[in-house]
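testing teh design pipeline on a random one, pls ignore if ur not involved
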């Protein structure tokens, strides 16, 4: 975000929280490309609708390994008889399983379809708001996600 956009995000978050904007600080890190704002001990990732879509897409792409095996197989149109094998692979490799499972998704149903289904079922907040899974509509095309 540029300085003006960040200031708008700060003002909108302050209004939503009923907080003074002077009490909101930009963190020295971002969250999936979103601006990270700190209010006391609470932390929020904030962005425009387009930025939040991009952040969520990146998050899902990087965490295919963590999806339930049954969801992956269902979206890929593969038999659920493979569930134990996929789950064992996920448990053994953890994050290391991501590239292989992402290729499986891309070769079968396509990542875009997989992504759309995941977000359609759970919403962006499920992926971006690690604290509570909620998406906060701040208005003016901005959204926030509590991450701590």
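output:
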């Amino acid at each position: 975000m540029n300085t003006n956009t960040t200031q708008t995000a700060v003002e909108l978050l302050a209004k939503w929280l009923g907080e003074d904007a002077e009490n909101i600080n930009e963190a020295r890190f971002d969250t999936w490309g979103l601006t990270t704002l700190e209010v006391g001990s609470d932390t929020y990732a904030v962005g425009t609708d387009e930025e939040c879509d991009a952040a969520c897409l990146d998050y899902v792409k990087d965490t295919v390994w963590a999806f339930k095996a049954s969801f992956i197989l269902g979206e890929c149109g593969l038999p659920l008889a493979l569930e134990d094998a996929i789950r064992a692979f996920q448990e053994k490799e953890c994050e290391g399983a991501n590239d292989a499972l992402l290729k499986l998704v891309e070769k079968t149903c396509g990542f875009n379809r997989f992504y759309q289904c995941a977000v359609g079922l759970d919403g962006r907040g499920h992926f971006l708001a690690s604290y509570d899974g909620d998406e906060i509509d701040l208005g003016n095309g901005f959204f926030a996600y509590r991450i701590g």
